[in-house]
Fold this protein.
Amino acid sequence: MPKNFPIIFNFKKNEYFHDRIKKTKPMKTYFMLISLFLAVPFGFAQTDLNYYLPKDVNYDINIPTPKQVLGYEVGDWMVSHDQLIKYMETIANVSDRAIMVEYARSYENRPLFHLVFSSPENLANLEQIKADHQKLSDPKLAAGMDTEKLPLIVVLGYSIHGNEASGVNASLLTAYYLAAASSSAIKDLLKNTIIFVDPALNPDGVNRFANWVNQNKSFANLSDPNSRVFNEAYPGGRSNHYWFDMNRDYLLLTNPESRGRAKFIQEWNPNIVTDHHEMGSNSTFFFQPGVPSRNNPLTPRRNYELTKAIAEYHAKFLDQIGSLYFSEEQFDDYYFGKGSSYPDINAGIGILFEQASSRGFVRETANGVLTFPFTIRNQFTVSLSSLEAARNLRKPLLDYQKEFYSSALEEANKDAILGWVFGDKNDLGKMREFLNILKIHAIEFSQLTENYSANGKIFEKESSYFVATSQKNYRLLKSIFEKSSSFEDKTFYDVSTWNFFYAFNMPNMEIKKGKGVNVPKSTVVGQIVSKKGQLIGSERPLAYAFRWDDYFAPKLLAAIQSKGIKAKVATKEFSYQADNLNEYFSFGTILITSENQQLGKAELHKFLSNLAQECGIDLYCFSSGYTAGGIDLGSDSFAKLEKPRVLIFVGGRSDSRDAGEIWHLFDQRYSMPVSLVEQNTINRIDLAEYTTIVLPGGSFDELGKAGIEKLQKWISDGGNLISYKDATQWAAKNLNLDIKFKKEVELNFQGIPSFVNKADAANVQDISGAIFEVYFDPSHPIAYGLPGKTIPIFKTGASVAEMPEGLYRTPFRYSASPLLSGYCSIENNERIKSAPFVIASPVGRGKVISILDDANFRGFWYGSNKVFANAVFFGKIF
Ligand SMILES: [Zn+2]
C-alpha cells in the first residue's frame, strides 16, 4: 500500500473474517438458467445472489458475500451507509485485489471513499501508475509514451442522488464480483485497469433514503404507489445535508463531497466514469450517449464516438439478461457540472445510466410490477459491461486522452484570447473562495507583479490575477470563463451558462492576442491571497467601523450581534481623516460605538480584534465622532440594527433546494443560526419571536387559512417577510400583495403545429438558466455592499413581474438589454427588459421583500448572495 494513501480501515487482511466465512461451492453450480422473475413473477420469494451474478464464473470462497456480512441478500433491504462501509471494509481486508481510500467527508461526517480494485502488483505501485498516467496530460511527456503498456483508470460511481438506490445497492455486487470472480478475463481486467468503486457518491442522502424505505417496509410486499414507502418525507434523499443536488455541483464545488471528487478527478484523470441514476418508474433503462445535438461544442467529437462504442457493450449485456433500454433520445452533457459530464471536459468519458425506479422494494408500474432486485441487477450488469468495454477499448481510450490534451494546447494557441485579468480589491473574501475553486479544478493562475490597466480599468497587483488560455485545462477554463451565446439546440437538460466571473460578480478583462498587446506581468503562485483582518487607526476608539463590501461582512456582523453588541448602519456616505486614517465609507458601513455595550471597552476591543482576524476584514477605529465629509458618527442617518431572528418555512410544497441554499448560506458562510420550521406547525408557534420570515421558492398552502391570517398580522405588526423566487406568486395571491406577473410568451405556428415536436417548441420559450444584467440604486439598503451599479443575476424559469405602482418599491430592475450569457428567446428577453428583480411591498408597519429570481443559485452565486443577506440584515430600516 502506498504510504500517502490515507487508509481509513486498517484491519489485517485475511484474518477478520476467518470464523464467519461459510464454505460455499462455486456459484456456477447454483446458477439457475431461469431468472427469479420468470420463476416467481412478482419477486416475492427471497432474492438469491445467483440472480445477479454472471454465469460460468467461479467465485473465491474466501471472499464473503454481502449476505454473509450483512445478514440479508442484496435487494432485501436498502443498504445503509454504515452497512455499506462494513461490507467494503471487509472486502478491503480480505481481498488482495482491493484497498479502501477516503477522499472526503460529508457534512454529516460520513466518509466518501473509493474501494480501489486492481492486481496486487498494481495496488502496490499506485503512486507510480498515477504519475505515469498524469504524463498523458502533458504533450511533451506523452509524446514518447506507449499507451499499450498503461493501465486504464475507471471510476464506477453510484447513487449521487441518494434516493436512486439501485446504484448503491448494486455496488455491493460490484465489490463482491471484483474481489471474488476468478476467470482469466477478470485477471486480465485487473492487470490492465485501476477500478475505483465509489459506492455512495452522496452518503447523507443515501442514508436518509435507506432509513425511510426500511422503516416503512411492509413484509407482505406492498406495491401500491400511494403508500407511504413510495412518498418520502420532505426533503427526500435525493440531496445532501443542505439539500443540494450534488449532480450539479461538479463545477461549482459548493459541497465538500464534490470538492474531494473534483480533486480526485484532476489527480487521476479517469478514462471512464460511470454515473448510476434512476428515473421515473414507468420507464426502462437509459445509457448514454444522450441527444447528439445537445452535446457541448467544447467536448471533442471523438468522445461521442467512444461513448457509442462503449454503449454497444451495455446493449449486449442487457440483451443477455433480457432487459429493455434506450439511448440517444433523452439527457445531455451540455452542462459540465454533472457526474457524467465533468469527466468529458477532463479527457475522460462520462457515462450516465438511468434505471426506472422502484423507489421501494416492489412497485406497480406501466410495465408491470417492478422489483428492487431487478433494478439492482441492471445497474450491476452495466457496471460489468463498462468494465468489459474498458478491457477491450483500453488503447483507444488512452490514445484519446493523450490526443485530448495535445489538441487542447493546439486550440489554445490558435485562440484569439490570451487570457483574463481579474480581481476585486474590495472583496478579498470572495477572491479567496474564487481562487480556491480554480485551484481544485487544476486551473493555473498567477498573481500580477505589476498593476495592470487597460480601457480605463485598473487591476492592482496585490489583489489581481491572470489566467492564461494556454494551459492543460484549456477546454475546462473556456467553459467557465467564456460567455455562451450561440446554441445548436435550444433544449437544455440543465442550465445554458455558468460563467464564473458573472457568478462572483468579479471585475475582469478579456485580453486578446495581437501586436502591441499589453501582456500582464505575473508570477505563478501556489498560495492564495490570505489576508488577516485587523484593527486600524486609534488605540482608544470611540467607535469602530467596517465596510459591507467583503463577502464575509455579514458573518462579522452576525458574530457581533450574537454577543449582544449593538451595531448601526450608515444610510449615507462619509469620510474620515484622523487617527492616521484617510478613508471613504460608502452606504452600508457598519458602526459599533464603544459606549453602552454589553462588553467593557477593553473586552470589546479584544473581541473585535479577534473577529477581524477570523473574518479577514479590517475594522477602522475612530477617536472622534467628527468626520471630514458626509454624516458625523452621531448622525441619525446611522440606522439602529436589530439582531435578525430568522425563520424559514419549509416542508409541504416549498422548494427544498431554495430553502437549503439559504440555510447553507447562513449556517456555513455566515455562521448564523436560522430556524427551519415546518409550515404546518405555524399555529403552534409564537411568530413574535422572529424578526424575519423567509418563504423560499414553492407554495405554502400548508400554512392553512388560520396560519396565513396569523402571518399577515405578524407582517402588519412590523414583521419582515422575504418571498423568494416563485414564492412571490404564492404571496401575491395569498397575502394580497400588489404584484402582477406578465403573460408567458404564446407559441405561434404557421399552419398545424407538429405534435411530435411539441416539447421542443415549448422549450424554446423556457429559460433553463441564463444570466441577466440588473441595475440598482446603490443607496438602497438592499444594495449595500454591492460594487458599481449593475449586477449579473441568474434566472431560471420564464416568470417575469410587472412593474408595480409606488415609488421606491423596485430598487433592482433588469436593464434595457438584459441578456448577458446563456439561452433566452428574443420574446422573453423583451419581457424581461426593465422588469423588477426586487419588489418591496409595505404592509401595515411591516413589509414583504420579494426577490424574484435567484440570488443564491446552487450556493455558487457569491456575487448576489448579498442581496439576500441585505434583505435579512437591513430589511427593517427602510
Ligand atoms: Zn439521478
